[in-house]
Write a structure and sequence with these properties.
The chain is an alpha+beta fold. The protein is 49% helix and 11% strand. The chain is elongated and about 50 Å long.
Length: 157
Amino acid sequence: MKEEKKEEKLLKEILALYKSNKSELIPILLQVQSTFGYLPPKSIKVIARFLNMSESQIYAVASFYTQFRLTPLGKKRVSVCRGTACHIRGASHILREIERILGLKEGETSADLEYTLDTVACIGCCALAPCLKINDKVYGEMTIEKVREIFSVSEKQ
């Protein structure tokens, strides 16, 4: 209950910066997502009322743009590089092993909100291919064994 009040307060503070113009939808969504990590369903209802729009219009915009998330991210965001160098050096095997270990498919978040698994076009560490990133830490020259080591250590924390 206390957390819910805090969210309502934050949302009101965000909306206070705007003038209820429909043209402000994307900046509002970006700021809400930046604050909460995703677009909570309650915030979409409040934004719809604020902008005099239907919730379905808000969802249409939020689902059209790939930067918006309608579900929360896990605490540990795992991004596997699919760039050319990583692809050639076995990124697909690395991804399959991570999927197996975490029990997730690409684009999914674990029920306990511990992990989100995604792929990215390029991490920018081609010399270390294949690579993956967990939050802001890059892991290079990945092998199946290294993946098992990273996630067995990570699961104990």
